[in-house]
Write a structure and sequence with these properties.
Chain A is mainly α and 218 residues long. Chain A is built from eleven helices and no strands. The two termini of chain A are 29 Å apart. Chain B has a domain of 155 residues: Tetracycline Repressor, domain 2 (Orthogonal Bundle). In chain B, helix 1 packs across helix 6, helix 4 packs across helix 6 and helix 9 runs antiparallel to helix 10. The chains are: A mainly alpha (218), B mainly alpha (226).
């Protein structure tokens, strides 16, 4: 979301409706926050930084958001929504479950690798943005659980698997990605695909098959 | 001054005298407890010095005698909590004389117990530290890394050990921390005990395979309900 390319909104009569301008302003603020956070980290970002990057006034900020945290939450939601769409597209037309899970993992890693600033915003800075954002991150990541849980159908009938399996697996995957991003290597996230795939498939297919498919995915 | 005969052993009136060291230790304990509680309640960024000294019931001068600033107090909290908990976890692992899986079970049991007993401190270390600046994040990372050597011997049990991902131990430790963090964020530290067998199974599975891991977890579950 590079705001620099947008330039300031044209002043005076520009043929945009009031709603369109308001929508643009909100988007600019979200992009402005993302740029400011990438610049100096959430904790150090001030309102002035956000409006400077967004090229709008403080009054406009307060017309859209109550606080820096609320603006962050909005930015986070934009990324989550985008990832949700990408995952939807990635699994479209794939019926077979392990391939579906691998395709989804690949799509998420590819997007975050291509947008290292947003990867950092979602996986690292979100932890600094207060309890509400922390809770939201957990919720958003939890959306991946049903995608993994489909693997349960691959297991022998009656074989039990702890209910928290998806949770702990997702936790392991997030931790893996988080450490890569925190180390400043977000652009290399795609290299994690085999390890991620192996971990994600292991509870459902067993270690040997999970490893085989993971290697094939690389 | 020479004590009068017969009065030498009598205590002066009022509270027992407290040594300077003990008073200092008590102040530090109060400051760190207050820091942990406030951070668990509202996050690190939102927590101010003013709130810390008020909650700890100490003056600013006392605070500055022990810590340079809020971050120094937080980092000291991370060090103290990590040393205590990881130290106990490592001890439990060493003390258990059974096979590797039993040792991991004992270690994980102590970890879950400690986190459930100190949810505010645990939340500060496991959740908030990640984004509270580079030094705090590094301490979180270091704490996580200390769990890896306890898991690594499990590779011996896996016939395909050479193929296991290099990052497996740290990733599993990350999974454990995630499960703990989730429950802390949800304010459900009391549910951790029930999650111990499942989490143990999750950790053992890549090394021992499904059946063995489930059997070990079942034993732990039986021990808990007994």
């Amino acid at each position: 979301m590079p705001t620099e390319e947008l330039g300031p909104l044209p002043a005076g009569r520009h043929g945009y409706s009031r709603e369109q301008v308001a929508h643009h302003q909100r988007e600019r603020l979200i992009a402005g926050l993302a740029a400011a956070v990438a610049d100096k980290g959430y904790a150090a970002v001030t309102l002035s930084d956000i409006v400077r990057h967004a090229k709008v006034s403080r009054r406009v900020f307060y017309a859209n958001f109550e606080s820096k945290e609320q603006c962050f939450l909005a930015a986070f939601e934009v990324v989550v929504e985008h990832l949700r769409e990408l995952v939807g597209v990635a699994v479209e037309g794939i019926d077979e479950w392990p391939r579906q899970a691998i395709a989804a993992t690949r799509a998420v890693l590819a997007f975050l690798a291509a947008e290292p600033d947003l990867a950092r915003l979602c996986l690292v800075e979100s932890r600094a943005a207060g309890p509400a954002v922390t809770a939201r991150l957990n919720e958003a990541v939890g959306e991946l659980a049903p995608l993994l849980a489909r693997g349960r159908a691959k297991r022998p009938e009656g074989a039990r698997l702890p209910t928290s399996t998806e949770d702990s697996t997702i936790g392991a995957l997030v931790s893996l990605a988080h450490r890569k991003v925190a180390a400043g290597e977000a652009n290399r996230l795609e290299s994690l695909l085999p390890d991620c795939a192996e971990l994600a498939l292991l509870p459902y297919l067993g270690p040997a098959e999970a490893a085989r498919l993971a290697r094939a995915a690389a | 001054m020479r004590a009068l005969p017969g009065k030498a052993s009598r205590q002066p009136p009022g509270p027992e005298p407290v040594s300077r060291d003990a008073a200092d230790a008590d102040q530090r304990r109060r400051i760190l407890t207050a820091t942990a509680e406030l951070i668990a309640e509202q996050g690190y960024q939102e927590t101010t010095m003013e709130e810390i000294v008020r909650r700890a019931k100490v003056g600013y001068a006392t605070f500055y005698k022990h810590y340079a600033d809020r971050e120094a107090a937080f980092l000291a909290l991370l060090d103290a909590a990590t040393d205590r908990t990881v130290g106990r976890v490592e001890d439990a692992y060493k003390r258990e004389e059974g096979p590797w899986a039993d040792r991991v079970g004992a270690a994980l049991g102590v970890l879950f117990e400690d986190v459930a007993a100190h949810p505010a401190v645990a939340r500060a270390v496991l959740v908030e530290a990640v984004a509270a600046g580079p030094e705090a994040a590094a301490k979180h990372e270091a704490a996580l890394k200390r769990l890896a050597p306890l898991l690594r011997p499990g590779r011996e049990l896996n016939p395909r050990q050479a193929e296991l991902p290099e990052s497996l131990e740290e990733t599993l430790a990350g999974g454990i921390v995630w499960v703990l963090g989730q429950r802390l964020i949800a304010g459900e530290a009391d549910k951790l005990r029930g999650l111990l067998p499942e989490t143990l199974e999750f950790v053992l599975r890549p090394y021992m395979g499904e059946d063995e891991a489930a059997r070990e977890a079942g034993e732990v579950a039986d021990a808990i309900s007994a």
